Amino acid sequence: MPPVNEPAERHTLSMLVDNEPGVLARIVGLFSGRGYNIDSLTVSEVSHASHLSRITVVTTGAPPIIEQIKSQLDRLVPVHRVVDLTVVGKAVERELALIKVRGKGEIRQEALLIADSFRARTVDTTLESFVFEITGKPEKVDQFVSLLEPLGLVEVSRTGVAAIGRGPDGM
Amino acid sequence: MLREMTGAEMVMQALIDQGVEHMFGYPGGAVLPIYDAMFHQNQVKHILVRHEQGAVHMAEGYARSSGKVGVVLVTSGPGATNAVTGLTDALLDSIPLVCITGQVPTHLIGSDAFQECDTVGITRPCTKHNYLVRDINDLARVMHEAFYVAQNGRPGPVVVDIPKDVQFARGTYVGPENIQHRTYQPRLKGDPEKIRTAVEMLAKAKRPILYTGGGVINSGPEASRLLREFARLSGYPVTSTLMGLGAFPASDKQWLGMLGMHGTYEANMAMHDCDVMVCIGARFDDRITGRVDAFSPNSKKIHIDIDPSSINKNIKVDLPIIGDVKHVLEDILTVWRGMKAEPDRQALASWWGQIDRWRARKSLSFKTSDRIIKPQQAIKALYDQVKDKDVYITTEVGQHQMWAAQHFHFEEPNRWMTSGGLGTMGYGLPAAIGAQVAHPDSLVIDIAGEASIQMCLQEMSTALQFNLPVKIFVLNNEYMGMVRQWQDLLHGGRYSHSYSESLPDFVKLAEAYGGVGIRCSNPADLDGAIHEMISVNRPVLFDCLVDKMENCLPMIPSGKPHNEMILPDNAEALDEAIDEEGKMLV
């Protein structure tokens, strides 16, 4: 690496890839093999007809490292296109989380109030627990989870970030 | 061309349609149908190796000396894992290969079947791309795609893993003319705006240097010709990495010799002090740069590379040009002529004056002896006798490799094959065999060390079987010389396990294989013995007993910049040269 003096930044990379066996392993292997970070990762088919999947990776690194990650991804044969959404402009970034809390009485009331103020939906209820569903920017989910921490937080399941550029043009 | 056939027949048909004349391989349970299909044709000749690593290195030597794609065929499990070193070697040196591996039948995949391994999983990080073909209807397309991917863009190895049931299955064959890769379309032409800027920077340069690499060779002979043309037109000095030797003729007065850790003083000093550097098909590897934060501190850097990920990877450059070397050099020449650009003759004359003063240090000099053969002397003697012949040189890895790069001189591309990136001991003999297959009437010599040669020595048997008269020129110093040299540098001369104990009698060994063995230990006999070696039209193992303690100089100690080279005339400085931080580096 060239001497990197710049501070690390968080970037969201989105790529279109052939939906074929091993393509995810190829991408994840590139990150681990070259020592890059993966903060979050989401994968799903986006076009069944043309066998395309979209992979969104949130990664952290100094700008030259991010540039290197992008060109390393771009040269993988099944990768069609890589876009650094953080550079392109403020992208829309959303994450979905399911959060389970357990408690009775006042604590239960408090959890419900917080969920309400975050516009989280209650998707499962028992007499001593809730499962909330929340969608939003990762920071909003972080904040919601941390508020529920003292209120009987049992477990969290997050999808990782899905992102898309603003405006009329596609990637 | 649409025809019904079995998967195994498709493999052979695809090879034929891709123009393959030779392949290197080893049979086994999971590739038997392909070997059977091979039996029924005689267009593709198969070279039976003795170990799969040898097959891949042979294919590399074949590819590098001929410019064609090298083809390997191995079985599942150990066949595939034995090929991994060669595949990684080809990836790091950007050598186009297609390696076909057999796989257990699809219904057994994942069951830990006999000779099963996850070949695509294991080879994913050591290939440019790989495929597991589960469906007979994909096989022909994948075969043709593999050849396309291997040789287009930055070349590299491609694995095609074919389960045994797919080899037996019947399907419709499609020819290469119907295949176009959906997405992989590397850019060949450089950005015209950037090429114009590059020419302006070059024309204004006062202390320019052309730093060339293996990309010039990979781009084809035309790229070497264009490099020569540009060098002549501009009068600028040229240096090269280990991988690029031969792209520019070593006899040319503008040639500075190889650069880097064991490069010449003039090449490294010129890299350090230049004001405009053009990196052409090279990648600022750590053997080249030395300490990166002190690398060529005052220069503007132009980088021509077909692989965008090479740009700014190790060294930040001022002007990247993505494209194939041949196309970019062509355009640079056109623009240079169109602009009627002229180099700054006065500045250039004083730059050459400076370079000549560095040259006068004679950084490749060594003391000869009439008592003992100096390894450098052995290479020189070899070079003097074969330089006017049609000769191809391969090497193993270590001191002998660096001495060969320093003292054997190349005039043409594709004549020099060495494991540059991975540094694979055992590369040289199989690579020589591969080169000999491609050039049956040429003289092919593997310059080796006594330690390296033992890593793939079994391929002597292959050379004998196929009448491939390769010459193995072993500089025998009874040490893993480069390891011993670094133990001197870093570990107080404690030679932990670097002594070549219990060496075989190489002459008898050569004879046991059915080849010719020659031993030489007296400088006075050297020329005669070399003459004997090259006069024999059979494989020869030449055991050249050389000075055991000679160090490979000059050297940029690890962690040091280019202008802190250790030269032969201050070799004692080597002991103190590397600081604690440098010791961490390799």
TrEMBL record, chain A:
Example of a GO MF term: acetolactate synthase activity
Catalyzed reaction equations: 2 pyruvate + H(+) = (2S)-2-acetolactate + CO2
Enzyme Commission numbers on file: 2.2.1.6
Family: Belongs to the acetolactate synthase small subunit family.
Family annotation (PROSITE patterns): ACT
Keyword terms of this UniProt record: Amino-acid biosynthesis, Branched-chain amino acid biosynthesis, Transferase
PANTHER family: ACETOLACTATE SYNTHASE SMALL SUBUNIT, ACETOLACTATE SYNTHASE SMALL SUBUNIT 1, CHLOROPLASTIC
Record Pfam families: ACT_AHAS_ss, ALS_ss_C
UniProt-listed CDD domains: ACT_AHAS
Pathway field: Amino-acid biosynthesis; L-isoleucine biosynthesis; L-isoleucine from 2-oxobutanoate: step 1/4; Amino-acid biosynthesis; L-valine biosynthesis; L-valine from pyruvate: step 1/4
InterPro entries linked to this entry: Acetalactate_synth_ssu, Acetolactate_synth/TF_NikR_C, Acetolactate_synth_ssu_C, ACT-like_dom_sf, ACT_dom, AHAS_ACT, AHAS_small-like_ACT
Annotated protein name in UniProt: Acetolactate synthase small subunit
Record text on subunit structure and interactions: Dimer of large and small chains.
Domain ACT: 12-87
Primary role: Catalyzes the conversion of 2 pyruvate molecules into acetolactate in the first common step of the biosynthetic pathway of the branched-amino acids such as leucine, isoleucine, and valine.
Enzyme class of the recorded protein, top EC level: transferase
SUPFAM superfamilies: ACT-like
Automatic annotation (TrEMBL), chain B:
Catalytic activity entry: 2 pyruvate + H(+) = (2S)-2-acetolactate + CO2
Entry's cofactor comment: Binds 1 thiamine pyrophosphate per subunit. Binds 1 Mg(2+) ion per subunit.
Segments crossing the lipid bilayer: none
Listed EC numbers: 2.2.1.6
GO terms, molecular function: acetolactate synthase activity
Keywords: Amino-acid biosynthesis, Branched-chain amino acid biosynthesis, Magnesium, Metal-binding, Thiamine pyrophosphate, Transferase
Domain Thiamine pyrophosphate enzyme central: 195-331
Top-level class of the enzyme under EC nomenclature: transferase
Pathway annotation from the record: Amino-acid biosynthesis; L-isoleucine biosynthesis; L-isoleucine from 2-oxobutanoate: step 1/4; Amino-acid biosynthesis; L-valine biosynthesis; L-valine from pyruvate: step 1/4
Recorded coiled-coil stretches: none
Domain Thiamine pyrophosphate enzyme TPP-binding: 397-544
InterPro entries, per database record: Acetolactate_synth_lsu, AHAS_TPP, DHS-like_NAD/FAD-binding_dom, THDP-binding, Thiamin_PyroP_enz_cen_dom, Thiamin_PyroP_enz_TPP-bd_dom, TPP_enz, TPP_enzyme_TPP-bd
Cofactor: thiamine diphosphate; Mg(2+)
Limits of the Thiamine pyrophosphate enzyme N-terminal TPP-binding domain: 5-121
Similarity section: Belongs to the TPP enzyme family.
UniProt-recorded name of the protein: Acetolactate synthase
